[in-house]
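User:
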Amino acid sequence: MIHRTEKKMWWYLPATIGILAVAGSIIFFVFRKDAPSGYMTAPVTKADVENTVLATGAIEAKNLVSVGAQVSGQINALKVALGDTVRAGQLVAEIDSLPQQNTLRTKTAALAAVRAQQEAKAASLHQAELAFKRQQEMLRGEAGSRADYETAEAQLKVIRAEITALDAQIEQAKIAVDTAQLDLNYTRITSPIDGVVVAIVTKEGQTVNANQSAPTIIKVARLDMVTIKVEISEADVVRVKPGQRVYFTILGEPDKRYHTSLLAIEPAPEAIASESSNASSSSSSSSASTAIYYMGILDVPNPGGKLRISMTTQVNIVLAEAKDALVIPSAALGDQKKDGSYTVSVEMEQGVLEKKQVQIGINNNVQAVVLKGLHEGEKVVIGDKPASATTTTASRGPTLRMH
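Assistant: Predicted structure:
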């Protein structure tokens, strides 16, 4: 019985050892693969990288004109509707012109009266010239007295002076007629520019009073080209300049980019226009605690009219860009040395790290362009290095090698 039991034990022993060996291999493989390494890596890849200044802007019309009335009266007819496209010189409204017509008639009649007086004086001048000439001949032939000669001479000078005065009155009357004609023309209000009617301020039948200020009837804007005013912070304005490439998006189409370039940067904040010339130093110190923005100007073609006045834009001003460049996450960059290079940890194999010095170009704090020191496909560490990392054994943590 003992012999038979020993034979059975020897028969089970190889099978048991085999099972334990397979189980141990599986456990070792699983734990080796799934055991946390203590760091994360990212591959060195190729991509397009930009370094941009992010700003917010608002769309304005390229040219916005308030079309107003220069004379008082009731608006008899409004010739346009909101959204209509108008041309320069097109009639947009008419004001009751009867008072202006009457004024023009009065001024024209006054001009005619002065001209009639001038014609009468012209006849008197001719008569005075003949009388003076006659007295001059008689005095020369000693047939007349000097007193008569001087009287004729004085009369001639008086008539000539009166004609000169009438000439001045005629010029004044002409100016009055021209002014009355202008006032009559002002009752027909026309658009000064090509554009779109973006607002109707005064309704048909309403009476406007232009004695104190020119009331606005409609507003016309040029919308085939729009202007965007971008708020650039004082921290970023030193890095931007006219001519730089710009792209922006609108809230309604966040995935569509509109491209243009930076046209200009205003030299002072817009708040300077509202500040009084005798602003105190206390107000200046209080403004120092608020954010300061300088307005960048963009001109954007808008042939389809999709961009509308007062839309909010998210603007990116491109400072630098690289196409198809080697890039790594900015989080992979370690300390920067005096020569400008950075320290990067590279995974050479599982659990083995090697420190390399790399030269970096564009760095937008998300991605960094590698100029020298790495190759495509290498893996760089982007997480914190494990505290237990030593150069002794790989089983206790990643091995660090200096390069």
